[in-house]
Specification:
It is built from 14 helices and nine strands. By secondary structure, it is α/β, with parallel strands linked by helices. The chain binds S-adenosylmethionine.
């Protein structure tokens, strides 16, 4: 069969973009760790000036800046080779406290890829890899990836979209944040609702150690406490709100988790489920966002689920119908989609 040269060129074009993006990931993380973006945001600089500003070697900084300009992450004035950041580049690349912080996603991606030999082997054996056995950069990169979105949406949009929940939390209330990771959502809710008690939990002890540190740094240890526990076993009862942020699909037994959540809620309590944006059929997810999530799913989500008992591995592109099935199988009677962003869908479930 004759090879269509145009189609080969089309594939090569795609490949060059992907290869460039793959190595670009490492360079973004270098810029994040060394403060190169932040220093460039202080004002335009030649490579030598940026190297002096950041106490780095000028030869490396030159190569880094040229690659960043080729990728559109920095601007260059070729008359004198001076680099700068636009307002938008500075917004997205310099401050983890903003509602967008792109380098965090690359920390997560590079951390995930460190498991490649084990993931390759797992494809053959069907064995799992627990979240707790991933590289440290998966844990902190996940926080850096998701936290900006939570800053942008959790308190301003997602919680108010739930039926009566913010009114209740304004005058107190109990929240369980299960699968909380490093607790960024727990801390944000504790800050927004000083009268509420937030109980974060995660099955990974190291994540819980870091969550306690985050709560201490934020000055909310009086109202945000953490325990090592699975979503099937976390302690406490009579919660007004239980939250699961981007973790239900990671669990080997999400239905057992949903049963436990229902028993831990007050009869009129609410379960807020935040899951990756996805359509029900995989064909709806064959797009750039779906590609990101399927990529993480085969390295992180499916391996974690297969490392646990239960027999489920929903994956990061489960979609509304799959989430609804888990929720209703556990006896919840009301379920609705309340909000969405390009990366997340937020659901409300009531007993
Ligand atoms: C993608 S991370 C999300 C972490 C955090 N909720 C966030 O949004 O940043 C998934 C989390 O689920 C946790 N996890 C996985 N299986 C679990 C289980 N069965 N019970 C509780 N936590 C679990 C992992 O340790 C990890 O912290």
């Amino acid at each position: 069969m004759a090879v269509d040269q145009d189609k080969v060129m089309e594939l090569l074009h795609r490949f060059v973009g992907d290869l460039g993006a793959t190595v670009h990931a490492g360079n973004v993380v270098v810029g994040h760790r060394l403060g190169l973006y932040k220093a460039l945001a202080e004002g335009p600089a030649t490579p030598d000036e940026l190297a002096r500003r950041t106490d780095c070697h000028p030869r490396y900084v030159t190569e880094w800046l040229r690659g960043q300009a080729a990728g559109g992450y920095v601007e260059v004035d070729t008359d004198g080779e001076r680099y700068s950041l636009t307002e938008e580049q500075a917004f997205a690349l310099t401050n983890p406290e903003n509602g967008v912080y792109l380098p965090g996603a690359f920390v997560l991606a590079l951390g995930s890829l460190k498991a490649e030999p084990r993931v390759t082997e797992a494809f053959r054996t069907g064995s799992g890899i627990g979240w707790a056995d991933q590289d440290e950069d998966v844990i902190v990169g996940c926080e850096q990836f998701f936290r900006p979105g939570y800053i942008a949406s959790l308190v301003p949009t997602w919680l108010p979209a739930l039926d009566g929940v913010t009114d209740r939390l304004s005058s107190g209330g109990k929240i369980a944040d299960t699968g909380c990771g490093l607790g960024s959502s727990s801390v944000l809710m504790a800050q927004a609702f000083p009268g509420a008690q937030v109980s974060g939990s995660d099955y990974d002890p190291h994540s819980i150690d870091l969550a306690r540190k985050r709560a201490a740094d934020a000055g909310v240890t009086d109202r945000a406490t953490f325990e090592v526990a699975t979503a099937q076993t976390f302690s406490g009862s009579d919660y007004d709100l239980v939250t699961t942020f981007d973790c239900l699909h990671d669990m080997g037994d999400p239905v057992a988790a949903a049963h436990h959540i229902r028993s831990a809620l007050k009869p009129d309590g609410t379960w807020m489920i935040v899951e990756p944006f996805a359509g029900d059929d995989y064909t709806e997810n064959l797009n750039p966002v779906g590609r990101v999530y399927y990529g993480f799913s085969s390295f992180l989500c499916v391996p974690n689920a297969l490392s646990q008992s239960g027999g489920y591995a929903l994956g990061a592109q489960a979609g509304e119908a799959a989430v609804r099935r888990v929720v209703t199988d556990a006896g919840f009677t009301r379920f609705r989609r309340v909000s969405e962003t390009p990366f997340n869908i937020v659901y409300e479930a009531r007993p």
